[in-house]
């Protein structure tokens, strides 16, 4: 591998959210970045992964307040100045489109604000939140995240890019939604799902407005941009990062026939399922399926709707329930996942998809968000004493990335 993707912690660099910089954090990340470079790896650095300082929530409600924009831009500026001489790829936000919905329409992600007991996609109860409004807050937060991104990009381009020669983008969660049937209703429902997930964060940058479907279905609950904000958003990406793992089927559903509580996920008018005629969309369980063709569908979508803008696959991989160290090392299913996904990705690239690189999820087992140590995503197993052991998938990568081996050759090894 020739690149390493890592995230910085805003709360380490600014323990109070803003104000005084913690020099110990700057020193720490300087050592990390220098270590990455010393190994011949190109760092891609993310500024935010759903982890801004709690103090900002306490002071003014976090991303619900436009003060968040100012504070994020200051934090980004500090990072560009401290690390930008060596970092050539910046990601402002990781999966902001996923977080805005999950954190402000469900109880799953902090701060867990939502209208209580909304029943949504897959008949899921989104939680008994104590505060929040699922019909307005996700859109306010998404709006502020977009403006924070644009502000950070403006600072980078005006102060640093000319001398540091880097590029900047963000990484979006892209769960591909395939029409359940070939009816016009389900085709439209799948397109709406992509509008609400991807167009929400891409259309303002590429087209100066939110998707037409969002404007029509959300109406006055959707914030609007000023002319100055549209100008700042315009072109505020050097690349699009795509986190692509899986897919579901989508079909037309009007949730508001039976509910009168507005909610971001209900606004899609699209329900989802992992099954068509009783057959799963891919291998797996709990609606986290391995669907190799979804990675090609996703990059082809960017190719078609966003003029084949430069893309990085900033995350693709799969996690499995952890049983034992013996079982976990022989991860045949993960090898198959990477083999089949990369084969589809190669086909898309050969057909002209403008993909510049791909990052595997993940190098090491981690303490996974919401699920702790119950699942493992690493190509290296990490035990309770933090020792690291290569899984079969790590050995597969070593073979696949060697100079005399191709993905096709590696497919034949197994």
UniProtKB/TrEMBL annotation:
Task: List the GO biological process terms.
Answer: carbohydrate metabolic process
Which SUPFAM superfamilies does the UniProt record give?
(Trans)glycosidases (SSF51445)
* Keyword terms, alphabetized: Glycosidase, Hydrolase
GO terms (molecular function) for this protein are: beta-glucosidase activity
Instruction: Give start-end of the signal peptide.
Output: none
Which top-level group of life is the source organism from? Eukaryota
User: Which Pfam families does the protein's record reference?
Assistant: Glyco_hydro_1
What family, per the record?
Belongs to the glycosyl hydrolase 1 family.
Protein's UniProt name: Beta-glucosidase
Q: Give the species.
A: Ceratopteris richardii (Triangle waterfern)
Q: Cite the source lineage.
A: Eukaryota, Viridiplantae, Streptophyta, Embryophyta, Tracheophyta
């Amino acid at each position: 591998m020739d690149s390493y993707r890592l995230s910085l912690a805003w709360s380490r660099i600014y323990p109070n959210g803003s104000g005084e910089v913690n020099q110990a954090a700057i020193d720490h990340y300087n050592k990390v970045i220098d270590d990455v470079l010393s190994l011949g790896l190109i760092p891609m650095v993310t500024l935010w992964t759903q982890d801004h300082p709690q103090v900002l929530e306490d002071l003014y409600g976090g991303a619900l307040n436009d003060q968040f924009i100012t504070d994020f831009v200051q934090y980004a500026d500090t990072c560009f100045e401290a690390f930008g001489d060596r970092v050539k790829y910046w990601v402002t936000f990781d999966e902001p489109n996923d977080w805005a919905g999950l954190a402000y329409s469900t109880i799953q992600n902090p701060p867990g604000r939502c209208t209580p007991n909304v029943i949504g996609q897959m008949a899921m109860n989104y939680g008994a939140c104590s505060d929040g409004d699922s019909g307005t807050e996700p859109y306010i937060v998404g709006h502020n995240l977009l403006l924070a991104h644009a502000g950070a990009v403006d600072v980078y381009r005006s102060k640093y890019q000319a001398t540091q020669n880097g590029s900047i983008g963000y990484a979006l969660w892209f769960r591909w939604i395939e029409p359940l049937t070939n009816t016009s209703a389900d085709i439209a429902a799948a397109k709406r799902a992509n509008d609400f997930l991807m167009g929400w964060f891409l259309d303002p940058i590429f087209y100066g407005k939110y998707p037409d479907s969002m404007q029509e279905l959300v109406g006055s609950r959707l914030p609007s941009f000023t002319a100055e904000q549209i100008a700042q958003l315009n072109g505020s990406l050097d690349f699009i990062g795509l986190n692509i793992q899986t897919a579901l089927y989508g079909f037309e559903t009007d949730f508001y026939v039976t509910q009168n509580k507005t909610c971001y996920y209900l606004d899609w008018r699209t329900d989802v399922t992992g099954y068509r005629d009783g057959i799963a969309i891919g291998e797996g369980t709990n609606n986290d399926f391995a669907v190799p063709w979804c990675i090609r569908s996703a990059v082809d979508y960017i190719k078609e709707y966003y003029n084949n803008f430069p893309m990085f696959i900033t995350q693709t991989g799969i996690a499995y329930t952890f049983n034992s160290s013996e079982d976990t090392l022989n991860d045949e299913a993960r090898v198959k996942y990477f083999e089949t996904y990369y084969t589809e990705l190669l086909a898309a690239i050969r057909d002209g998809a403008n993909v510049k690189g791909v990052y595997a999820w993940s190098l090491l087992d981690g303490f996974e968000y919401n699920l702790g140590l119950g699942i493992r995503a690493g190509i290296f197993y990490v035990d309770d004493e933090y020792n690291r052991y290569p899984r079969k998938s790590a050995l597969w990568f070593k073979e696949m990335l060697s100079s005399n081996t191709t993905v096709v050759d590696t497919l034949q090894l197994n």
